[in-house]
Amino acid sequence: MQFGVVLPNFSRLGTREAQVELAREAEALGYDSIWTTDHVMMAKGQEEPYGLILEALVTLAYLAPLTERVKLGASVIVLTQREPVLVAKQAATIDYLSGGRLILGVGAGWNEREFGYLGASFHDRGRRLEEYIRALRELWTSPDPRLEGQYVQFSDVLFAPRPAQPNGPPIWIGGASAAALRRSAQMADGWHPVGASPEAVAAGMRRIGEMANGRRVEGTLRLRTAIGRTLPEQRGANGQVQATLSGEPEALIARVREYQAAGVSHLLTHFGDNDRDSFLEDMRRFAAEVRPGFQSG
Questions:
Q1: Is the pLDDT at 149 greater than 60, yes or no?
Q2: In angstroms, how far is CA 81 from the centroid of its own chain?
Q3: Total-model pTM
Q4: Which residue of 20, 45, 170, 291 has the fewest C-beta atoms within 10 A of its own C-beta?
């Protein structure tokens, strides 16, 4: 089991100082990865918690030379709001400069108003996501990149430098819909839901296994996390109640074991975004009192 830390690149802790301090502390504590969250511009009335947010890929690039070992991940880039060839270049550059440490989580997105601000198409975002992923893979791995898609076309091009990782950064698909499960099974390296219960994870991993044709797809998960206290009810963008990871250390260990049995091998802990001292305390206690019971790798 590997453990990551979701950095608060948004809300009250979305500052340069907080990113540097928390990223370095996560690495010093032995966490396997650090993660940023992606939004670009929210409407008034939708500002919590993403009204103030540092751009996800730029933040990872900034943190790469300030860390040495931890994987650098996006949880997740709304790929369908972005120009895919540029994302391929940005991701390849971060991976190359960091020595092969990037993990690229991608999703179809949910905020229709934000799509409009960025001049992106909302209603065909599922088809776009699949074609954009094909574009990333082609540019990262092909000696002669070519794609004649509905949305993306290129041929007779040079794309260099390549990512440091031979097959490019691992791609995780965000979401828990039937389409997200299918895409994870068919074209991703990992499935990455947020706030899913152990039962939902187990069911999703079974379904992915049925569709993956023998491909290995990593089970990953992002959870709001606190130690020594119980978190209030959390709801996602769709209004549904999300599972959390909170309570005394013994309860957290038992819960993580449930997720491990369900198929999770990389768990992202999100310790909040408003209070530095609370974030540090939870991150340190989790590292000292919960994580030692699980073998890393």
A1: yes
A2: 16
A3: 0.96
A4: 45
